[in-house]
Amino acid sequence: MGKPTGFLELERAEPEKEPVQERVRHWREFERRLPVLEARDQGARCMNCGIPFCHTGCPLGNRIPDWNDHVYKDRWERASIALHATNNFPEITGRICPAPCEEACVLNIPEEPVSIKAIERSIADRAIEMGGGLRPKLAETRSGRRVAVVGSGPAGLAAAQQLARAGHDVTVLERSDRLGGLLRYGIPDFKMEKHHIDARIEQMKAEGVVFRTGVGVGTDVSLEGLRAMHDAVVIATGATRPRDLPIPGRELGGVHFAMEFLEQSNRVVAGDTVANQLHAAGKKVVVLGGGDTGSDCLGTSLRQGAESVTQIELLPRPPEGRTDEQPWPLWPWKMRTSSSQEEGGEREFAVMTKRFVAGADGKVRAIEVVRVEWSADRRTMKEVEGSAFEIECDLVLLAMGFVGPEDRTWHGMPVAQDPRGNVRADVESFVTSVPGVFACGDARRGQSLVVWAIWEGRQAARAVDAYLTGTTQLATTPYQYAP
Ligand SMILES: Cc1cc2nc3c(=O)[nH]c(=O)nc-3n(C[C@H](O)[C@H](O)[C@H](O)COP(=O)(O)OP(=O)(O)OC[C@H]3O[C@@H](n4cnc5c(N)ncnc54)[C@H](O)[C@@H]3O)c2cc1C
Ligand code: SF4
């Protein structure tokens, strides 16, 4: 612990954000990095707790008190080594992780946690600028074993990097034209610019990973064929089957899945031309769903010049802070305002959509909704009589979550699924019902977080390495409950 009185003397500081009226005019990241001295002050606030509860929040088991102390003492290189020991892509999680570690931090009991995420980003960015952060780590010996990783989201990339560093010959197969999964085509640039992914891909290529884009497993090559050509296969294909809303009017023009909208927007920002782009300019947009995806639709619609954006949530408005039912260090269900929600739009809670209403042109012109009342445990709800009303709109984006992997047949290969339709594999072996075929990331656990995807990829790589060589030196972080 660097400064024993740091947590008493210094207040929490958060990175500055560009003012709303400026940032909504462009697509670049708008959150600035903590200045060095402020990052050091934040490091000084860490109490190096006997039981570092921040660890219970972080799936990756990031060594948070260690790097906090290094930063406080201006030892940035050692901080970077400690950070990269558990996280392959900290410059990414330092930007887009919801930071469950901060909810679990002991200093969050009075709601002033250490600014762990901002420190993480500072360490990662400075390491890249100083040259060490992206330096390839070449395996000392090659195993001669061949591994195929299917899917290039954060889970597939983390698995591939770990396996390459363990000396295996790794090929990543990606059906899309660009690498990165939802990091590339889900999360907008204003939350995370895409050069961060490109830089890691270059590092991985230098470490020996081979990337093949435009190759769909099941369409261009069968899973069975892939297994026959490799010593092991890792399925990291995500869980992007969207939840639909089969109510009257669903077929109307102007009602779309959120990912259709976000992918097109991300492509255009990347320089692609998208014919008949789904665009929010001048439109009254309704986003159904109050989570991350809905928030990204809101920020994207505002930047495209929407006339209005209304984000609708079926659940009731959460309490402002923790309640007795969700004590520290648990991840609480409480009111959160994303950076996109700070930028504008209206939020409606406890509202259920009953039907999409057609206009004279046959396209959606409104949604008909009712207010609902929830039981205290939020398990049941009932409609409030006489509360029906209409919200005018000409673009509706369905952002109500995802219900599992898109492909549930695995093209004839008998990969067993769990009751939710995810690929069945446990958190120790990561092996599926087919020997030599492993699964990780959202494909295994269902739609989740980037930090979990990285954990899954790292752990699955360890399991594959042990399967191929009988032992493994790859680092491990045991499974723990975290949001
Ligand atoms: C809009 C949106 C915003 C989000 N924002 C955040 C956020 O801010 N913070 C956060 O922590 N999490 C966020 N998430 C969740 C996070 O992005 C995912 O949990 C994470 O990307 C999962 O990683 P993955 O590698 O398992 O899968 P994915 O990222 O989904 O990648 C799977 C990859 O597999 C490829 N693939 C699929 N099938 C095949 C096939 N048959 N053959 C070859 N390739 C295939 C896909 O094209 C894709 O590239 C967000 C999710 C969405 C949808
Ligand atoms: S819980 Fe908070 S104060 Fe304690 S070690 Fe972790 S970051 Fe530091």
Automatic annotation (TrEMBL):
Pfam family, one: Fer4_20
Gene Ontology MF, one: iron-sulfur cluster binding
Pathway noted in the entry: Amino-acid biosynthesis
InterPro entries for this protein: DPD_II, FAD/NAD-bd_sf, FAD/NAD-binding_dom, Glut_synth_ssu1, Glutamate_Synthase, Helical_ferredxn
PANTHER family, per database record: GLUTAMATE SYNTHASE [NADPH] SMALL CHAIN (PTHR43100)
SUPFAM superfamilies reported for this sequence: alpha-helical ferredoxin, Nucleotide-binding domain
GO biological process, one term: glutamate biosynthetic process
FAD/NAD(P)-binding domain boundaries: 146-319, 380-457
Naturally occurring in which organism (per UniProt): Sandaracinus amylolyticus
Keywords in alphabetical order: Amino-acid biosynthesis, Glutamate biosynthesis, Iron, Iron-sulfur, Metal-binding, Oxidoreductase
Domain of life: Bacteria
Domain Dihydroprymidine dehydrogenase intervals: 24-130
Protein name: Glutamate synthase [NADPH] small chain
